[in-house]
Design brief:
The structure is a homodimer. Chain A is about 50% helix and about 5% strand. Chain A contains 8 helices and 2 strands, in the order αββααααααα. In chain A, strand 1 and strand 2 form a beta hairpin. The longest helix of chain A has about 30 residues. Chain A is flat, with a radius of gyration of 22 Å. Chain B binds a DNA duplex (16 and 16 nucleotides) through helix 6 and helix 8.
Chain lengths: ~220, ~220
DNA sequence: GATTTATGAATGAAGG
DNA sequence: CCTTCATTCATAAATC
């Protein structure tokens, strides 16, 4: 069985990356075998199970005794969220919380290009519920997000024709470290990103989707 | 509901599965974009962090009160878990060959401060002859080189100049390293730890944007 | 082989 | 918008 670490290595040394044509467009993608996918899936399932058990345990334990002092410790009080006021020793740069990020990404993916002044206000209001944030932050975020998304596409496109005619042994398909490409059409069509993101949402106390049993049904 | 299996299902439904020819053989494989892969990587990292935190918490709690009721038991050493760890999450990164480095340094020393996009392309092309490289790599290299060069100068100037308390700001980078050695300490910096902390806040009522239902934008 | 250091990359913000 | 900068994060390389 190919374990995930080895798979990762393979990705590095001998990238499973190749050019594919989907819906008439050329894009660079990672390729996994069923086996690799299965391995990954199992590993995620293991994490999910462990997390569930641990959370459950924690609940039990902390219910039995009210250790107000310890109680998840610093986990509850993210300094970023808790302390909005003092900037003495901390940084002045805003950092989105994961919740905020997910919301932002979702909005971005909806393709409503330029978030108008109106929208910005709205979004900011919504995000405020999940942490310190200002309209400027939101504005900047969209600005940056779009710009970088764009640049990445160009990069990928460029790497397509760069060494078409050169002599070097560098193969076209092997671009060492092209990060995430962002073809929006695909993004919305099959939002693994969103699915994966939700995998990690522990906000729901019941954690229905973390049930290990539901994962055992295949192959 | 949205678990690993679900994701797998979606993979099957969607045309992300296609026929590829590798090494002369036809095989069916799963296809992911770089972005999806990166997202997955992050998600797994979040799981890893959550697990660590929870285990840590558990230790603290059960150390204070020895109720031998639940205990992690065998959960700690799941074979699958053990074999994989969360090392899956490592990410590759470009490293310049010595030849490339020499060339880069030489160009940098020529003082042509801003390597325009034009230049970048040129340089990249040149460096490609000596090893795997992309324009982004070159761009980043110059960015970093300049920034760090600058910082060093400032450091020297500042230390010449006096204040015993300036160090806190100037030595940011050094400090961050120190913090890393003490994972127990809470840090006011954004990291997966915080991401995990956010996600693990199960006291948060509901999150409309994260509702799986609202994710059904795709057919 | 565990820590520490060096450095490639990511990203929020400012400038134009 | 696009470019640039400053800061921070994460990891390869170096060190002990």
């Amino acid at each position: 069985m190919v374990n995930a670490m080895e798979w990762q290595k393979q990705q590095q040394q001998n990238p499973n990356q190749q050019r594919n044509v989907i819906a008439g467009e050329i894009m660079y993608v990672k390729v996994m075998t069923d086996e690799q996918l299965e391995t990954l899936r199992k590993q995620i399932a293991v994490y999910a199970t462990i997390c569930e058990k641990l959370i459950e345990m924690h609940k039990t334990l902390s219910a039995q005794q009210d250790l107000a002092g310890i109680r998840l410790g610093s986990m509850y009080c993210d300094p970023l969220m808790a302390s909005s006021g003092h900037k003495i020793t901390s940084r002045q740069r805003w950092t989105p919380t994961s919740v905020q990020l997910q919301i932002l990404e979702r909005i971005f993916d909806q393709g409503t290009g330029t978030p108008s002044k109106e929208k910005i206000k709205e979004i900011t209001a919504e995000l405020s519920k999940h942490g310190q944030i200002s309209e400027t932050n939101v504005y900047n975020w969209f600005q940056n997000r779009r710009a970088r998304s764009k640049r990445k596409q160009q990069n990928v496109a460029a790497s397509n024709n760069t060494n078409t005619n050169t002599e070097s042994e560098v193969e076209t398909e092997v671009d060492s470290k092209d990060k995430k490409t962002k073809p929006e059409e695909f993004q919305s069509q099959q939002s693994l990103a969103n699915v994966a993101a939700q995998n990690v949402c522990f906000h729901n106390p019941d954690l229905p989707y973390l049930n290990p049993e539901s994962n055992k049904s295949d192959s």
